[in-house]
Each structure stands twice: as C-alpha cells, then as structure tokens.
Amino acid sequence: MSLTNELIQQKLTDKFGDQLTDWVVPYGMLTFTAPKELNLKILQFLYDEPELKFQFLTDLQAVHYPDSKGAELAVVYHLHNLTDNVRLRFKIFTDISNPDVYSATSLFAAANFMERETYDFFGVNFKGHPNLIRILNVDEMDYFPMRKEFPLEDQSRADKDDEMFGRG
To answer: What is the rounded CA–CA span in Å between residue 129 and residue 142?
Structure first.
C-alpha cells in the first residue's frame, strides 16, 4: 500500500486525536500544527511507526510572527520518508517570553546544528540540547537578529539615496 497524506493524517489523528490542528496540504506536502509539549512524542511516533518511517529530519527552523501574542515563535520541522519519498511538515508555537521547546537531538543527530542555529538567530531554547550555544553569531551578541523586532536597514545611514531604491 502506498503512503498517502490521508493515511498519514489518519495515523496521527488516531494516535493524538484533536490535539493536532490546521491540517493543510500546500503543494502536496501534508502540514499540521501541534502543541509544543508534544513535539518529541510526534517525532518519535513518526519515526517508529512501521507504515510511516519518517526517519530523516530534512530541516528545522523558526519563524517569528510578532503579531501573534502568546505564539510569536513557530518551530517548523520538515521530515522525509526516504522509502516512499514522502515529506511532511509540522509546526509548534511558543511564547517569545518563554521560548522553551524540547530538543530533538536524542532522536535525530542532525537536529544538533539546526537547533543551535535556530537558537542563535531566533532565541528558541531547546531544553535537553547537549551544547546549546551560538553557532554563527558572536558570543557577545545579546539579541536574536532574525526576529522582526529590528529594522531591515540602518535608518541612520546618510550615504543612501532613496531615489535609487524607488522610494523618493
């Protein structure tokens, strides 16, 4: 039997019930949202379930939604079933004032550097990570540069001509 998005959704719904929400299939990739407390249980289920076999973590990153009070940071997991060549994505949301999320490094070794990068740029604190330190930015940096709290351009620059950028 071929692995379909419907079968994956049914297996996840049977296991986790209505805790999983926002089911969509953009560009054929099954996507859903889960509570942040369930991220490891979902990852473990997707990994261990014989019919699913999502044993490759393709990507892990964060997105900052500054207007979503209480759920400003999304951590997004991309998983791949290499046997059936099926991918899926799921998101968990966390409050920016308490950005604690369980680390997936015990299940996926590849999560190590991905979680460090996500911490470095967005400030997501992966609880249980073996070495959660900055990976690309300097250690002295006291902010997280990919959050949308900062302007894209240095507003104090006098050497810019807004005419050149169509803003004049």
So the answer is: 20
What are 62-90's pLDDT values in tens digits? 999 999 999 999 999 999 999 999 999 99
| Residue type (1 letter), 156 | S
Distance CA 27, CA 55 (A): 22
Could you write out the DSSP letters of every residue in 111-124? HHHHHHHHHHHH--
Instruction: Quote the CA–CA distance of 13 and 45 in Å, as a whole number.
Output: 12
Could you give the residue ranges of the DSSP H alpha helices within 26-158?
A: 39-48, 111-122
The single-letter code of the amino acid at 68 is S
Look at the chain and count its residues. 168
List the beta strands (DSSP E) in 11-157: 21-24, 30-34, 56-64, 73-81, 86-94, 100-102, 125-127
Query: What CATH class has 5-152?
Result: alpha beta
Q: What is the value of pTM for the model shown?
A: 0.89
- Residues 14, 9: Cα–Cα separation, whole Å: 8
